[in-house]
Design a protein that fits this description.
Blueprint lengths: L3 E4 L18 H8 L6 E3 L24 E2 L6 E4 L3 E7 L15 E8 L5 E7 L23 E8 L5 E11 L2 E6 L5 E5 L17 E4 L20 E6 L6 E5 L9 E6 L13 E7 L15 E2 L3 E4 L26 E7 L2 E6 L15 E6 L4 E8 L11 E7 L5 E6 L5 E5 L5 E7 L14 E6 L6 E5 L4 E6 L9
Antiparallel strand pairs: 1-5, 2-22, 3-4, 4-26, 5-29, 6-7, 7-8, 8-9, 10-11, 11-12, 13-14, 14-15, 15-16, 16-18, 17-22, 19-20, 20-21, 21-22, 23-24, 24-25, 25-26, 27-28, 28-29
Length: 480
């Protein structure tokens, strides 16, 4: 497998033969003008949300300058940044197990010995996927499942040294999250039962993946953590509580969960010991989309036990939580831990789908100590958004002291930075056109994450499945 590299060295656009996407999207307006007046609002102090590394507290003020068109037609970056293609779907896995699978999605980076970095990458493969995750003995849950994870090991210089199957036989592996003990929890975004789509086992579970030695974790579903349309997780590093999002597009919408493990922070394999699954109830708020004011805070958040986590007869979000009900939200996606709180994303809400109100992205903060839920960031709505997306999806904290947000919608797709001051800037634009001249489509970004030392951003293009490593002047004064 070859690795390719491109450097943005000039602000002068390069000639490109690809068709230019001419529609101006809401996110492009955000990138050019900042947040003011274009449908993004932030709540008060963002100290926790935008707490970066100590070495970069003064950075991330205005972004790094305009994006320079990539003559290779893959990835536009600001001047001074460069990318390397680490892996691309269809190329042979270095392990010899088969081709690199399709549909690159959630991802995390883990530090290793001698400066190595271990990447674990999801493949959101449905039964129609072009390239399945190859079945490997001892690492396959359901032979009929086409999803799973692959693992890459990079040396101290950033070169790929190994690439192999980490888990196979799962389905629609969307996002997930890292654990404090250095493993990856991969999430199935499906509720298909055995007998559906040829599956031999039920799906809709979380699986633990060891990035260094996947055979330590195997392919064991963590059934106590629930069977539903999982999206992402975040672990409280102090208590070991695991927070989970449910990406339900249509009513009844998904729930926000917490899992109270029997063996909190017990290390690899400890989650198999089970625990208790609960769903969040915000008194008086049956639908989070109804909240539109940034800074709105709700005290006394409650947690209700899930009657049947395995959803034996009824999907969890449809189960009876008693006369007080439960709190739902459309498109719950990204989830991460920052400071002393957990943050989670509602990618968008549409009243036409049954939501209480419209928005094009919310970021919520839950403080476990005070049981407070606060709406921190609201996007939109605007008139120029191409439904059904252009909304925040995978997100991560950046060394620059802000957020990196993957865009998931129609038209051109970007990785955006959001600074502590609430300024939005474009960091990358996908130039890979997977549609036609009449109907161009650009694969969404996913799995944005940083190396442990903060020197490299890794990000996936969903289709055609591509994993990029982006380096540049992260520690320099951003351009204006």
């Amino acid at each position: 497998m070859s690795e390719t590299q491109h450097t943005s060295t000039s602000g002068t656009p390069h000639t490109s033969t690809s068709k230019t996407h001419t529609s101006v999207t809401r996110r492009q307006i955000l990138a050019r003008t900042g947040a003011a007046g274009v449908g993004i609002a932030f709540a008060g102090s963002l100290t926790d949300l935008f707490a970066g590394t100590a070495a970069a507290q003064g950075l991330g003020q205005r972004g790094y300058g305009p994006l320079v068109p990539d003559p290779a037609g893959l990835l536009d970056l600001p001047k001074g940044f460069r990318y390397r293609v680490l892996s691309r779907e269809g190329d042979p896995l270095r392990s010899g197990e088969g081709p690199v699978p399709s549909n690159h999605d959630g991802m995390a980076a883990f530090g290793g010995r001698d400066g190595r970095v271990h990447l674990v990458r999801n493949h959101e493969n449905r039964p129609t996927a072009a390239l399945r995750v190859p079945a490997v003995e001892g690492l396959t849950y359901d032979p009929a499942g086409m999803g799973g994870c692959t693992a890459l090991t990079l040396d101290a210089g950033g070169a790929v040294r190994s690439e192999r199957v980490a888990i196979a036989g799962t389905a629609v592996n969307c996002a997930g999250g890292p654990t404090p003990w250095g493993t990856w929890l991969t999430c199935e975004e499906t509720e298909d039962r055995a007998g559906t789509n040829g599956y031999t086992k039920d799906h809709g579970f979380i699986f633990e993946v060891d990035p260094v030695d996947p055979r330590r974790t195997g392919a064991v579903p963590l059934t106590a953590m629930g069977r539903f349309q999982h999206e992402a997780i975040a672990v409280d590093p102090r208590s070991g509580v695991v927070y989970e999002t449910e990406d339900a597009f249509q009513r009844p919408f998904g729930l926000f969960y917490r899992f109270l493990p029997e063996r909190p922070l017990g290390g690899t394999g400890s989650l198999r010991a089970g625990g208790r699954l609960q769903a969040m109830r915000v008194p008086g708020v049956p639908d989070l989309s109804a909240v539109q004011e940034p800074g709105a805070r709700f005290d006394g958040v409650e947690w209700a036990d899930v009657p049947d986590p395995l959803a034996t007869d009824t999907p969890v979000r449809l189960q009876d939580f008693g006369p007080r009900g439960i709190t739902h939200a459309q498109k719950l996606e990204g989830c991460y831990w920052g400071g002393r709180c957990v943050y989670f994303v509602s990618s968008f809400a549409r009243s036409g789908d049954g939501s209480a109100a419209d928005h094009f992205g919310q970021i919520w903060r839950y403080d476990p100590a005070g049981r407070h839920l606060t709406l921190v960031v609201v996007f939109g709505p605007d008139t120029d958004v191409q439904l059904p997306g252009e909304s925040p999806d995978n997100i991560c904290l950046a060394p620059s002291g802000g957020l990196m947000v993957c865009e998931d919608g129609g038209g051109a797709q970007h990785v955006y930075g959001v600074t502590r001051r609430g300024e939005v800037y474009a960091l990358a634009r996908n130039r890979q056109n997977t549609g036609t001249q009449e109907a161009p489509e650009y694969g969404e970004f996913a799995g944005v994450t940083f190396s442990p030392d903060g020197s490299t951003m890794y990000v996936n293009c969903y289709t055609p499945g591509t994993t990029f490593a982006v380096t540049g002047p992260w520690a320099g004064q951003p351009g204006r």
